[in-house]
Amino acid sequence: MKLEKIFGPDLIRNKIHRLGAQISRDFKDRPLVAVCVLKGAFVFYADLIRSLSIEPEIDFVRMSSYADNTTSTGKIVFSKDMEISVKDKNVLIVEDIVDTGRSVSYLSRVLEERGPKSVSLCALIDKQERREVLIRVDYTGFVVQKGFIVGYGLDYAEKYRNLPGIFQLIPDE
Ligand code: PRP
């Protein structure tokens, strides 16, 4: 396996600075709950919330999918749900990557049922090659067409999450 750098730390920092400014403007004087989707988004989330000039409430979810006999691709469930209420608040889902779109589609559907004022999505990487569900990403860091992406929170078999940049993982020929 080889790692090929696609976005370095400086580029990521600049991008997050811009996203943070935009989100702060859009949610000024509106109650915001920022939800980190574990594990992959933890690095991005930590940097993003520190770039905000507003004070969001902080919470975390973790989802897992398991194969079942009713769907070919498996079912998504919470392995950790939110702890604070989203009722009448604006919710910002913070993802490291949207790939097929199934995780975020499940999460926004579940959160919508809890009576929030709004649900928006911020994704560091919008990867479009394998998209199965139509998803609107409100705040996008980078659009990537394809490939296996690691670093800055994203893993391959739990490795590489600690890398400060974002890389394509290239299999050996
Ligand atoms: C990754 C990523 C997103 C999801 C995107 O999480 O963090 O949550 O997959 O994929 P999708 O759009 O195809 O649903 P993963 O399940 O690998 O867990 P992790 O964040 O703990 O690494």
Task: Describe the overall structure.
This protein has helices spanning 9-26, 42-50, 102-112; strands at residues 2-7, 32-38, 57-66, 75-80, 90-98, 118-127, 139-144, 149-150, 166-170. It is globular, with a radius of gyration of 16 Å. It contains 3 helices and 9 strands; from the N terminus they run βαβαβββαββββ. It has a single domain (9-147), classed as Rossmann fold (3-Layer(aba) Sandwich). The strands form 2 sheets. Strands 4-3-2-5-6-7 form a 6-stranded mixed beta sheet, with helices on both faces. Strands 1-9-8 form a 3-stranded antiparallel beta sheet. The chain is of the alpha/beta class. Bound molecules: 1-O-pyrophosphono-5-O-phosphono-alpha-D-ribofuranose. Residues 37-40, 95-104, 155 line the site of 1-O-pyrophosphono-5-O-phosphono-alpha-D-ribofuranose.
Task: Provide keyphrases for this structure.
alpha/beta, Rossmann fold, 6-stranded mixed β-sheet, 3-stranded antiparallel β-sheet, 9 strands, globular, binds 1-O-pyrophosphono-5-O-phosphono-alpha-D-ribofuranose
Ordered list of secondary-structure elements with their pairings:
Blueprint: E1 2-7, H1 9-26, E2 32-38, H2 42-50, E3 57-66, E4 75-80, E5 90-98, H3 102-112, E6 118-127, E7 139-144, E8 149-150, E9 166-170
Parallel strand pairs: 2-3, 2-5, 5-6, 6-7
Antiparallel strand pairs: 1-9, 3-4, 8-9
The structure holds 1-O-pyrophosphono-5-O-phosphono-alpha-D-ribofuranose.
Residues 37-40, 95-104, 155 line the site of 1-O-pyrophosphono-5-O-phosphono-alpha-D-ribofuranose.
Count of strand segments: 9
Q: Bound compounds, please?
A: 1-O-pyrophosphono-5-O-phosphono-alpha-D-ribofuranose
Structural class: alpha/beta
CATH class: Alpha Beta
